[in-house]
Amino acid sequence: MRQIFLDTETTGLHADGGDRVIEIGCVELINRKLTGNNLHFYLNPGRDSHEDALRVHGITTEFLRDKPKFELVADELLRYVKDAEVIIHNASFDIGFLNKELELAGRLPFRDHVAGVVDTLVMAKEMFPGKRNNLNALCDRLEVDRTGRTFHGALLDAELLADVYINLTRGQDALLMDQHDEASAGGGPTVVQIDLSAVVLPVLAANEQELTAHEDVLKQMDKSSNGKTLWRVAA
Is residue 177 helix, strand or coil? Predict the structure, then answer.
């Protein structure tokens, strides 16, 4: 499977209000392995960044003055992402900006060019309800090194997102990968049967601290659903 991790930096928060994309970073993953076939553009937006946005990405108007306009790189970007699964953190933001840029460049919307879009923010909220799930928080939680992230940068953030995604999906996807690799080697996967009838699994009771932490998570989930969680209703 070919997956592309994508991130953008922009002049502000509102694509429909005239803000533009100033940086695009893409990182390629094939069969859960980074290929090094990345794509990166700085773009001249034809306008200044808002002060709040400039504090986030640190990319000045002067630096971007000699960079290409989006329409000059649009076809290269679309060829790169064609038919891939594209993974973005807070996808609605980036897709909204890319769609506006593609519209201005006379191209079809972004989703028309790719196999699908996965939003890791949605994934993280499902896995870690009630917790902070921005990219910095996920890097810290999943032990992804982000020491080089002084400012937001599209390529750096796409690279961090790839590491975060691999950790988020570690387990079932990795098992499927192993089976796929064995099948590719010839003859299909080898199934090893192990007799577990004599194995006695120890039962580990949660301690008081763990029970308290679990109850806190349940309360957070209950709060976020306005008291509609099934275990509260049933009780």
Answer: helix
